[in-house]
Amino acid sequence: MIAAILLILITLFIPPIGVLMIAGCGPDFCINVLLTLLGYLPGHIHAFYIEYVYYKRREDARKGLYDPHPASGVYSDRVQRGGLSVQAQPPPPQGTYAAPAPHAPQQGGQQGYGTV
Q: For the region Disordered, what residue ranges are annotated (predicted)?
């Protein structure tokens, strides 16, 4: 709770620092720096969107919910997962697989494509 409030205060003054704390140094951080340089308000909107997605995914993961669709405009895997580590998933069950039967050569006539 206190960490979230501190993050919001940092984001109010310098939006890229807030994104850096949540998403790390990656595409989201670079986009936020560019948006902040283009205009202070677009940088804020983007930073608060990244933080919203992060905390929403984190809260959903704690409830046992998982959204398989990535949030649009978010490129950090850490934000997409809500800061939680990915647990190893068991391999999918193996279905029965029947190998195709080998072709028997034709008696007489052509033996294959392009032969005379």
A: 84-116
The alpha carbons of the chain give a radius of gyration, in whole angstroms, of: 26
Domain assignments of the chain as residue spans, ordered by start: 2-81
pLDDT in tens, 87-107: 544 445 565 555 555 665 556
For the chain, how are helix, strand and coil distributed in percent, rounded to 5?
55, 0, 45
Short-list 96, 113, 83, 100, CA closest to 3: 83
In the block, which residue shows the tokens 């003054």? 13
In this structure, what token pair is assigned to residue 73? 């405009």
Between CA 91 and CA 65 the distance in angstroms is 20
Q: What is the pTM of this model?
A: 0.68
